[in-house]
Each structure stands twice: as C-alpha cells, then as structure tokens.
Amino acid sequence: MLVRYLNLIFVIAVVIGAAVVFDMKMAAERSAERVAELKRQIVEERDAIRVLRAEWSILNQPDRLQGLVERYGEYLQLQPLDPKQIVKIEDLPVKPVMLEPIGEADPLGGFAASLEPLTTGSTGPAAAAIQ
Hints:
The protein has 4 helices and no strands. The protein has helices at residues 2-59, 62-76, 111-114, 125-130. It starts with a helix and ends with a helix.
C-alpha cells in the first residue's frame, strides 16, 4: 500500500517537473524572440542613422549652401561674418543681475524690453554683446 502511494507521489512529481521544465523552455523561447527583435531594431536604427548622416553631408555641401545663399540672400538679408564677432566666452560682458521686489516682477524678466533690432547703428545690451 505504501509503495502505491509513493509511486503516485513520484508520478505527480514527474508531471509537475515536466510542466515546470516546459514553462522554462517557453520562457526561454520568448526571451530569445525578444532578443532577436531588439537586434533587428538595432540594425534598422543603425541603417537609419547612416541614411541621416548621408543626407546631412549632402545638405551641408558648401556649393549647395552657397547656391541657397545666392538664391535667398535678399530675403534672408544675410551679411558676411565679421571676424570681430567671434569671441571667447570670457570676452563677453557679464550681464548684471537686476533684483526686483516680490510681486512686481516682470514675467519675462525684462527680456522683451531689452530686445531691439540689430542694425548697424544699434546700441544697447544686445548690440553690445555682439560687438
């Protein structure tokens, strides 16, 4: 009688073990499929990056840019770069901090008021930063 119960317990243990092994196998297959999908996405992203880099190099060709400047120069009102405009960050003037009483602060922090058109004779904070 005891032998029959032991055999029944062992059969149940084998069935449970087989089910657990089958579940592990299915989980491993799902993980392998996920890894394969991620590898495929990585390859697609690398291909897209290569295409974008090629397009960027075509768009930045000096001859093409020169043609666009000649074509739209009057509309854009572009001017040649003055070498005096290229400065180090240390050469820029320090912007003073203006403290205002609480409740009277400008939501834009006075930014809009300091903007003015940059023409040849401009003066002010924006023009001073460029000169």
